[in-house]
Amino acid sequence: MLKKRIIPCLDVRNGKVTKGVNFLGNKDIADPVELASFYSDCGADELVFYDITASAEGRGIFTDVLKKAAETVFIPLTVGGGVKTLDDFDRVLKCGADKVSVNSGAVADKTLIRRAAERYGSQCVVVSADVKRENGGYTVTCRGGRDSTGLDAREWIRYCVSEGAGEVVLNSMDADGVKGGFDIEMLKYVCEGISVPVIASGGAGKPEDFVELFKTLPWVDAGLAASVFHYKDIAIPELKALLDENGIPVRL
Amino acid sequence: MIAIVDYGVGNLFSLRSSLAALGYEAENVKDPEKLKFASHIILPGVGAFGDAAKKLEESGMKESLISEAGAGKPVLGICLGMQLLLEKSFEFGVHDGLGLIKGEIRPIEEDIPKGFKIPHIGWNELKFIDHPLFKDIRQGENVYFVHSFHAKNCPSVIAVTDYGAELCAAVGKDNVMGCQFHPEKSGLVGLKILNSFCRLGG
Fold first, then answer.
1. Contacts of A93 in chain B (CB under 8 A)
2. Looking at residue B102, which CATH number applies to its domain?
3. Mean pLDDT throughout B85-112?
4. What domain range includes position B14?
5. pLDDT in tens, B43-79
6. What pTM value is reported for the model?
7. ipTM metric
């Protein structure tokens, strides 16, 4: 039986892991390679590295970090942040990434997902969307929630899947960093019935939030979180034991 | 030396790193002639079957691989690399593989129940028969899969996994074997499988 995946996300800036509340006030907390190795030993099923630097110099530091992580950690690695072109795909795939997550790059260039899927295969292309409640609906935002794209999240995700995205990460901007649980309502509205794996992100505060997520929305494949893992509010072995006790299939 | 066949398909970095972590010297090999000097050959691959099969043929790797396998050298295909060991694939048309193992590659969609997502992505349990690749792991351990096609009509299946239906997880015939999953991405369990392969014949 396929297991539900637990995925820590590492936001990397200038070679360090950061995580802010509601994307503001980021604070450096750890060495990403050490943290990746720690998570892998704890039973994380996959890791996401998110590059939040904008400069060319930052990009170089990021790929060095990624290489080191891929040399020490033997679980799937997804890389996101600033991916706008096929060259960006190439750059991170060569450094050990297995999947590449596109967000605003796919909004800016509506052909990016199709071209990437044709070149690298759908299994390599993850579409990630920062979704916010707006005017009674759900819209896709860019730049860490600061800019609305005006795109309806439900339609956008379906478009991306039809273009060849092999996996979807939905991040709730309303729930992110608040630790009040996953945004079940948004996930259900935007992603129910999607034919590719769905990863829920934003809002996890305690282990029970993951139980609620997988019980309420059995078609969700993975739960992603950052600060609750970094600050050890949730320990992955205990989280997995709790999921197992609740009849949710996990890799122990 | 362990040769990783480099024909322009797939993420070789992780595979090389995992072999290095196990203490093996691996080399990305582009020149088919060089396969002669390898003790073991690994054929990786992601992407489309047709394109990969064409690249193997055009580069002369196909001929070299068939000859080295015929000479008894251990060969391990991973993911698409495993699929390429078989006779043919029905992914976007019909394409010939290396034909080192009997069987064909068909969409998993034909076999799994409705509602199961495609691709089959994630960690799933391995149920295997006695085989040197699996000598250091236990039944039911999880490995990482990413695929939409699988081997059918294959008499050499050595492991399966359950995704609503039984899917082929590994094949093996004498010195030629393949994993549909990614051992280089399957944590310690995967490293043990790679280690078992690298120790074959030694």
1. 11
2. 3.40.50.880
3. 96
4. 2-198
5. 998 778 998 999 999 999 999 999 999 999 999 999 9
6. 0.94
7. 0.92
Q: For residues A85 and B90, what is the distance between their CA atoms, to the nearest angstrom?
A: 31
Burial profile A52-83: b = 16 or more Cβ within 10 angstroms, e = fewer = bbeeeebbebbbebbbbbbbebbbbbbbbbbb
The answer to whether A204 touches A228, Cβ cutoff 8 Å, is: yes
> Angle between the B187-198 and B12-21 helix axes, to the nearest 10 degrees?
80
A234 alpha carbon, distance to own chain's centre: 17
**Alpha-carbon span A139 to B152, nearest angstrom:** 43
Question: What's the mean per-residue pLDDT of chain B?
Answer: 95
User: Where do the domains of chain A lie?
Assistant: 5-245
Of A95, A120, A221, the CB nearest to B47: A120
Fold for the domain defined by A5-245:
TIM Barrel (3.20.20)
Which own/partner contact pairs does A83-92 have at CB distance under 8 Å and 24+ positions apart?
A84/A108, A84/A109, A84/A112, A85/A109, A85/A112, A86/A112, A86/A115, A86/A116, A86/A119, A89/A116, A89/A119, A89/A120, A89/A124, A91/A59, A91/A63, A92/A63, A92/A66
* Residue whose pair of structure tokens reads 């993420």 in the numeric block: B11
Contact by Cβ (8 Å): A176, A203: yes
- Tell me the per-residue pLDDT of A66-99, one tens digit each, with 9 for 90 and over: 999 999 999 999 999 989 999 999 889 989 899 9
Q: Which residue in chain B is spatially nearest to A119 when comparing CA positions?
A: B47
A109 Cα to chain B: minimum distance (Å): 22
Counting the structural domains of chain B, the total is 1
